[in-house]
Amino acid sequence: MIPIRQRDGDFPVSTTSEASMQADSPAAKTVQGYIDETPVWQDGTNVPSAPMTRMQWWIWVLATAGKFFEGLVVFMTGVALPLIVSEFGLSAAEKGVVGAATLAGILFGASALGGLADTFGRKHMFIVEMVIFVVFLAALSVSPSYPLLVVFLFGMGLALGCDYPTAHLMISESIPSRSRGRLVLSAFGFQAVGALAGTAIGYLILANLQDVTAWRWMYATAIIPAILVIIGRFTIAGSSHWLLERGRTERAETELKRLLQRRPEYPKKIRLSAPAERQQSASRQGGLRGYRELFTGRNRRATILASLPWFLQDLGTYGIGIFTPTILAAALGHQTANPHNITAIIQNDILAAKGAALIDILLIVGIIAAVLLADRVGRIRLQVIGFVGCAIGLALAAFSQSFSGPMQMTLLVMGFMLFNFMTNMGPNAQTYLIAGEVFPTRLRGRGAGFAASFAKIGAVLTAFLFPMLLAKIGTQTLLIILVGTSLLGALITAWFRIETTGKNLEEIGG
Q: Which Gene3D superfamilies has this protein been placed in (predicted)?
């Protein structure tokens, strides 16, 4: 008999009576077993892949939003900061607090809220985080004072921190193992899209609204899109991995059926068996005891690999990312010294935003390279290569400070462009991907959340200290320090390596 190739599903379907009998009484499989399953032709030839379902793509689309909004608001802060400083009359220390507030929120939110995905479920926290984001974003756009401004930025960070583990888990627990790397990273890549969009929106608003309050409109542009994302997240299927691990087998089968709904229907019936991870250990740890488990046995190696390189990577990525406009404007001398009016401040800001936008484009190019290479080259190799490339780019930027004029500009821009490309091809992308893969299901939210929180300690320190360090030790010394942290990240990655490329999540967890 000849297999039928249906248009909507676009995969072979056997029409034999034997196949029908098997469909009526399917053998029990794990969740990932069903997700990874591909059809077989009549002569026994395996189809290399089955197409992603509409629900799988819908989950992916909605998961991109959190990373987009993070890039948008964090990198937009670099453009908005001079206006905020002018409106509220901030000191250098207060300016550092504003730059670090959102990152501090991410630090606490990744563990405090993201870890709750192991307790209350991935989908619930996926919705809650975006509601929190909208509430604080709206409040930020009308903030009447500096203290409230910091509170609202921190609140936004809480929501974005929760998104670090939950968005990753929503994707990785819903898609085939063979494409997990490129789909998780392509969603993560929207952080770079958001960074470029934040810089561009800041520039457009500054160009059309010559007022110190223009920064409020920058943040307000994200409110309506975020509300639409909330509505969409109510419609997705829940994580069957999490439901099955919690012993809710019937609900897990129902949600998996929604996830894999196709035309023609395939599979027609779903019967789940517990993965090896749950068969080996039925205990489910909660609260602080669950976090302690991250530092025992094999989980300790996973925790070190997921956390330390990410921390070192964030030192450079957020410091360079947030303050690229400031560094470019100061180093290249394209700004008015000691501006005394809002027009001069805005003109300085516009010039810096233009240079930052050009460099931010390399973030997108880098993440495209990561998407194409992660499932081919491997996570660990790309992370090591990326860290070394970041060190070279930062060294070029540091070396530029020994020159002046066109040579300085050329070396500085080349260094920052190389850094942005290498960080997104390597550690900025791979640390996020690895953190959501190396832990078992029962700890995946806590593990990924802890790694993100630990990483953001580096981001917060950088954002807070960068303005003061730039003034005290200078650009060149600061960049040389970051060269050292990048090389250290490469060494730790190689030493504690756990390669997850192409592996079944249930096998990694077991």
A: MFS general substrate transporter like domains
